Amino acid sequence: MNRLKGIFLVITGAVFWGIGGTVSKKLFQQYQIDVDWLVTIRLLIAGFLLLTVQFFRNERSQILGVWKTRRIAIHLIIFGLLGMLSVQYTYMASIKHGNAAVATLLQYLAPVMIIVYLIFRKQTVLTRRDLMTVCLALLGCFFLLTNGSISQLSVPTLAIIWGILSGIALAFYTLYAIPLLAKYDSLVIVGWAMIIGGFALSFIHPPWLMDSKSLTLEAYLYLVFVIIFGTMIAFWFYVESLQSLSPKESSLLGSIEPLAAVLTTVFWLKEPFGFIQWVGTACIIGMILLLALKKESSSRTSQSPNSGEPLNVS
């Protein structure tokens, strides 16, 4: 029963993550919600809720304990600003200029970027599996972004730029978080990082500056889904799934996220998606599965967004 519960939790969390991006696109498209405002409010509320969940767990002392050491505190602030805030903002900007499907798939290039980085730093060697992973990612991106036509892109240029930046930001986020996660629970680190990122962005777009009169009840429900289900509950469920599943199993099941983003983008928002783009999507999901099936020991060295510690923040 515990194993079934874990499978249910990780699949539900991954689906919420994927759908959350599509719902965000709906808010941008139909209600002209500002990206800065949405990222600010999403980070602040979700971060506070994650710390609240941690408060009712066994290690509540970690919530304030993470600030007692100056070196750890500085590390956490940098992680919140250059890791959490950058990956959240670039991901949402890619969705706004394109769609959730492309943004999510481009963000999932982060593991390939980590592999390349570690090879250049001579911290790992290029294996046949790594080469296959890179080839699948490049081929998938080509098909996804061009729909098979070399002469023109099928995705807006800004969406591609923000999506690639999101992948780079997630690669930094994943690597930079490792020392923090070795000492503190992931709910504490990610919760504080969200609050730090949201607080910093509040100086650019204060969360209270919003034309609430232009929002309908439907828009508020979408906002609740993005913040509560697509962020806080999705992450919490993923963490809880690790109580009964191995990190490898959770990361493998978590690869449902980009599929959920693609399906909801195509069938709910009616975004055009060509056959070749579906082939590209299959290549990238294949790349994710290839990484997830690696031995747990190696996956901790070159983590994918959803492998090892639950770091995904889509």
Mean pLDDT: 88
The helix/strand class is: mainly alpha
- Percent in helix: over 70%
Task: Please state the overall shape, judged from the principal axes of the Cα atoms.
Answer: globular
The number of E-state strands comes to 0
Question: What composes the largest sheet?
Answer: none
Strand content: under 5%
Quaternary arrangement of the chains shown? single chain
Gyration radius from CA atoms, angstroms: 19 Å
Number of helices: 14
Low-confidence segments, ≥5 residues, pLDDT <50? 295-310
Order of helices and strands: HHHHHHHHHHHHHH
Distance between the termini: 29 Å
Number of domains: 1
Describe the structure.
The structure is a single chain. By secondary structure, this protein is mostly helical. The chain has one domain (about 1-300). The chain is about 75% helix and about 0% strand. The protein contains 14 helices and no strands. The chain has helices at about 1-30, 35-55, 60-65, 70-95, 100-105, 110-120, 130-145, 155-180, 185-200, 215-240, 245-255, 255-265, 275-290, 295-300. Helix 1 (about 1-30) crosses helix 5 (about 100-105) and helix 5 (about 100-105) packs across helix 8.
